User: What shape does this take?
Amino acid sequence: MLKRDRYTPSELNARLRFIVGLVLAGILALTMGFMLFGLLFVYQGSELSPVDSEFFKLMSPVVMFLTGTLSGVMIASSNKPDANGNGIPDEEEQDVPDTETETL
Assistant: This one.
């Protein structure tokens, strides 16, 4: 069997956020797609039926919740200090000299 190196906690956190973000974005896209399909392509007569009206009233908070959760997951950080702003927490950076700041 192949043995792989273990992921660091920050790598696991990034993978978890990515997967959760994909799942929530997929659910949100499917929900919006079905709602638009129901509004645009299903014949409803001259008015929106009362059942469809209640369905859309019910789905609105669900979509708002999914949008808020998705944005919260994407914005959330691990609150680790990052002094130089390169996206790598300071405690995980290696002491490699930065070639851009060196003078010749």
